[in-house]
């Protein structure tokens, strides 16, 4: 089970939820999002460390070093930062 750490907010376990965003939302994190489908980019965060796998191809293209929490799952422990 991978651990997700959000800088300044804490950490939680990823326990086979659909996406990283779903895991964070279920654990009470205050994460930005809107569409949950990779269309808007509202859930973009900076990936500080760790590896993720894309589970859906987003329409929105995140910036360098950024990921969309609605479109990925963690493969290893990850550290992210809300931008």
UniProtKB/TrEMBL annotation:
InterPro entries reported in the protein's UniProt record: 2Fe-2S_ferredoxin-like_sf, 2Fe-2S_ferredoxin-type, 2Fe2S_fd_BS, Beta-grasp_dom_sf
CDD domains assigned: fer2
Pfam families: Fer2 (PF00111)
Cofactors required: [2Fe-2S] cluster
Keyword Transport tagged: yes
Source superkingdom: Bacteria
Keywords, ordered alphabetically: 2Fe-2S, Electron transport, Iron, Iron-sulfur, Metal-binding, Transport
Keyword Repeat among record annotations: no
Gene3D superfamilies hit by this protein: 3.10.20.30
Domain 2Fe-2S ferredoxin-type: 2-83
Membrane-crossing segments per the record: none
Protein family according to the UniProt entry: Belongs to the 2Fe2S plant-type ferredoxin family.
Name of the featured protein: 2Fe-2S iron-sulfur cluster binding domain-containing protein
């Amino acid at each position: 089970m991978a651990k997700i750490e959000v800088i300044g907010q804490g950490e939680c376990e990823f326990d086979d939820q659909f996406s990283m965003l779903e895991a964070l939302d279920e654990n009470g994190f205050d994460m930005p999002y809107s569409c949950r489908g990779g269309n808007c980019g509202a859930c973009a965060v900076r990936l500080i460390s760790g590896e993720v796998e894309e589970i859906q191809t987003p329409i929105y293209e995140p910036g360098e070093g950024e990921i969309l929490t609605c479109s990925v799952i963690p493969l290893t422990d990850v550290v992210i930062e809300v931008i």
